[in-house]
Fold this protein.
Amino acid sequence: MSRENILKELSENRSCRKIGYRYLSQKDNSKSQKFIPDLGDCMQVKNIYIMRHSFLKLKGRILALSSIAHFINDGSAYSYAVIYPYFVTNYNFSYLDITVVSVTYLSFSALSSLVVGRMADKSGRISQLLSLGIGLWGAAMLLLAFSVYFSHLGFLFLITSAIIGGIASAFYHPLGAALISRNFDVDKGTALGINGAMGALGRSTYPLLLPSLTYFATGMYLLSFPPFAIAFALPMLVKDTSYIKSNSQRRRVKFDKKLLKLMTLLVGIALIKGALPQGFITFLPTFLIKEAGLKYGFDIGLLTSLALIGSVISQPLLGKLSDSLGRMKTMMISTALGGITVILYVYLYQFILAEYILLFSFGLFAFEAFTLLLSYVSDLIPEDYVSTANSIVWGIGITAGGALGPAMVGIIASFYNILSAYLWLGLVDLVSLSFIILADRFKVTTSI
């Protein structure tokens, strides 16, 4: 009997108890009574079938495709930081010009995140929304290439790319985290760590390739092809039918006072944690050119990638550690070390070996928001509200913090210098330690 026929019988025929019992007995060596105490409800049998068979098959595809999507999302997002020095060199961009483009990108991302989460919770169509977001990245990368190759309209294409890229970036992190959290239980931290490592690999790879691609007539156009391919494949290979709620099951997403307090703390954590990596990385290539005396080219991409590559190693390890040690304690360790690394870089960057070690260490500890923070959100928030909560934490918190970080660094650097800005960035990061401790006390275990 085919899967479709079984599901049809289980849903429509009142004899589904008999069919479900026989089917599950054939597929399992143990007696069905051990794991199905009562098969009187047709929907219960249907759900058990999906969970034991279709659901398990989906896990591999979900982790693989969402990880590739994460690679594209994060790689595309960090392309902007590496393209800014190109405009500094060729169009005399200032720190404030970079700040305007960066804040535009991150502001659109923050605003879009709120809408994306509500759409996902109401429709349940997570893979289709992820596909839309990755497809938008294809358009954003195409426009970014136009900004390089059509110099007379370069700034217009750059701003337009930043707007579309900002909207595109709103999709992956809340929806990718929700998709994995719904499909993985005790191994959720490990799954998010593997997925996060692919995002880190994208962040590390794109900055390394992009300076070289600008020298070729059509090189940057290549960055738009992978997003379009994944956008086409994702909804075909990962179906949303098992997550879509019936009209009677849907409810309006709203937060009571206890949830609002928890969300406020989580957003505060995310705001600070989003400011650290974005503020540091956005200006790192420009700092290396204007202050450290390097020329735009492979060396800039290499050092930027060095500051990002550490997260490829640390994300799966931190995810695994959080499954055993606990999300809160793991976040405390990584947050403290991330802020301290930036502070030490201010004083030691002139020593080559110290610079390499600190840039690599920064990557190890500054990019665990997806792996740790969003899994921490799913631990503290009831499942019915995870997509919306992730969108708020990521949109208002991480993304708005990502806008705050470059704005803070750009403004301080314009009046003082970029090293002073980096020092304040590291000190502010350490403030989030107190918020992490408080958030654990407001855990909500039941739906409203």
